[in-house]
Amino acid sequence: MRIAVAGCGIGGMASAIALARQGHSVEIFERFEQPQPLGAGLLLQPSGLEALDRLGLQEPIAAAGARIDRLHGVSPDGRTILDLRYAYGRKADHGIGIHRASLFDTLLEAAQDSGIRFRTGASVAGISDWERPCLTLETGEHCGPFDLVVVSDGAQSVLRSLVSPAARAPIYPWGAVWAVRPDRDGRWTQARNLAQVYDDCRVMIGVLPVGRDPARADGTPSVSFFWSLRGDGFQRWRDAGLTAFRAQVAGFWPEAAELFDGVESLDTFTPATYRDVRCPNWRRGRVVLIGDAAHGTSPQLGQGANLALGDAVALADSIEPERPAAVSLAAFESERKKTARFYVWMSWALTPVFQGSSQLVARLRNILFGPLCRVPLVRNFMAWTLVGRGRWFW
């Protein structure tokens, strides 16, 4: 088959690799002149690691990242609010915190080794003839026809509405600012925790070990720092300046404020917003949506990249030469929607528990979550949700 992939992100490259290794001719269309990652760090769950293992990439990813064994969240005075361990799911389970650039570079090298062609500076603006799809670029150039088009252009997809006109993708009221910082004494990395501090629901600070930073040549391990922020508060945050921001962080978590050492401006931090993507259907003719283009959520459960990786290998598995493409895509959508629907709704339900303005919700969370993490079956369900197997728990 001749296959086009719109978008050179995690899901797009992973699907291209899986399909190319099946013998298909694959071409990736990317709007940037040079393929590049967007974002700071992410947490690869066991479900995502299983998908990477299918692609033969789990070993280099583990070498580049940092092992994570639990999520540990406390209040500013040190009271435990969340203590969720991967071993509550399966004893061998763990996550890998990784710099997005490390994951991106690993996938890019694998894609190049698989003979995939890249069209950079090629922003796809439209699709025509859904049974023999052709791509229309912003330049007016027409490419195709293709036997299959995979749309993986992210949560802010410009092609989603063409495939699924009834799709909705509102922006979450809350976002975050991120930065990758060196873990100079290795204490965060050695702890193997995604560490967080919460003050009510309005403040959430996190530090995630992410292993090597490709931008640093000295091999110092790194962490991804994040600070929760309302979408309408970005300008006020910037106007307040770096000194005020560091003081604010130090007031809640002095150890995290030490990561500001060497920071000279707020330009070190990248603002991020998120979309709650709901798509009634993921396919139209021989065109299919995957990843955040189909089911983007807030990062509260850390599932975005993992769901995209799962989509990629599931899509390749569904393509069988002896059955029509429409049947293959229907099978893919039916299977993956079960998992995606679970995580879309769980993310929607949990996001206000950690990013919001309700003091009542915060009090209930602080009372309930710690004890629930110690209750058998309940903590098992929570861990299975975390690792990416949530819908299979029962």
UniProtKB/TrEMBL annotation:
Keyword line: FAD, Flavoprotein, Monooxygenase, Oxidoreductase
Source superkingdom: Bacteria
Protein name (record): NAD(P)/FAD-dependent oxidoreductase
Sequence ranges assigned to domain FAD-binding in this UniProt record: 3-319
Required cofactor names: FAD
A Pfam family reported for this protein in Swiss-Prot or TrEMBL: FAD_binding_3
